[in-house]
């Protein structure tokens, strides 16, 4: 973990959340579906237990914040103000929770409002995590930028479904889940490229990254940083392979500073 630029936590709310009923994960071709429902221990346990654990390592701490109402988000952000974390990622886009997430993440006015409200009380830089389940991702990105977002991260999961044909039942109790993994990568790369053309804030690219080649694709599309999620389930050392692979790529092509690669795709 000392070799990683940052570690992003799972979503944390103002109070403990039980999450959705099980089963909550299903493998699909090219990835997985999850409907965890943002199960988490709540901010008090998180601050007491998880932040001290992460502080043992030489890496930055990014805390993902979730909530069902604006008040929920602000309670967590205020609680984190005096904690030794580096950034916050505001999850306005999780498609698994019926209350709050979808409404914030799919409405540009709501995105601008929640971003502005969070920025007023946050002491650390704020990342707004965007949902791909929208008609025009650039509209949502501009709304977050207008609200004062320091950074944007995208994409979150795409809403999907799997049916067990032998049992004639939904594979996930929630019926739908968030689709992640290699199959979503082309969509994610396209959206990162579009957003990079539309806003002036840095972008963290994610969605199906399983190798250094995948990560470099996102960087060339306009991402300043990349994040690895689902691939960790398959191969726990994926992030280290990505770090080593980016370094090897830079040496191969004589790239002195990775910033040279950001958005450097040739037309």
How would you characterize the overall build of this protein?
By secondary structure, this protein is α/β, with parallel strands linked by helices. The chain has one domain: TIM Barrel. It has nine helices and 13 strands. The protein has helices at residues 43-54, 70-80, 101-105, 108-121, 137-146, 185-198, 212-221, 231-234, 238-252, and strands spanning 6-8, 25-28, 31-34, 60-65, 87-91, 126-129, 151-154, 158-161, 163-164, 169-170, 176-180, 203-206, 225-227. It has a seven-stranded parallel β-sheet with strand order 1-4-5-6-7-12-13. A four-stranded antiparallel β-sheet has the order 2-3-11-8, with no helix packed on it. The longest helix is centred in the last third of the chain and has 15 residues, at 238-252. The radius of gyration is 18 Å and the shape is globular.
């Amino acid at each position: 973990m000392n070799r990683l630029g940052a570690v992003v936590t799972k979503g944390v709310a103002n109070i403990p959340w039980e999450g959705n009923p099980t089963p909550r994960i299903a493998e699909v071709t090219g990835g997985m579906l999850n409907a965890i429902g943002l199960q988490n221990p709540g901010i008090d346990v998180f601050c007491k237990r998880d932040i001290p654990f992460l502080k043992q390592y030489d890496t930055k701490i990014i805390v993902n914040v979730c909530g069902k109402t604006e008040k929920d988000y602000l309670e967590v952000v205020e609680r984190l103000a005096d904690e030794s974390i580096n950034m916050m990622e505001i999850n306005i886009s999780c498609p698994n929770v019926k209350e709050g997430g979808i409404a914030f993440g799919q409405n540009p006015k709501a995105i601008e409002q929640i971003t502005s409200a969070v920025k007023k009380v946050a002491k650390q830089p704020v990342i707004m995590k965007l949902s791909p389940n929208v008609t025009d991702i650039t509209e949502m990105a501009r709304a977050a930028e207008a609200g004062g977002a320091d950074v944007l991260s995208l994409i979150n999961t795409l809403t999907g479904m799997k049916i067990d044909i032998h049992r004639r039942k939904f594979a996930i109790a929630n019926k739908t889940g968030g689709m992640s993994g290699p199959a979503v990568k082309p969509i994610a790369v396209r959206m990162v490229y579009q957003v990079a053309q539309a806003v002036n804030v840095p972008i963290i690219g994610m969605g199906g990254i399983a190798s250094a080649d995948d990560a470099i694709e996102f960087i060339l599309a306009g991402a300043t940083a990349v994040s690895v999620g689902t691939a960790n389930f398959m191969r726990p050392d994926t992030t280290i392979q990505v770090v080593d692979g980016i370094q090897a790529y830079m040496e191969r092509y004589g790239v002195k500073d990775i910033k040279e690669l950001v958005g450097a795709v040739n037309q």
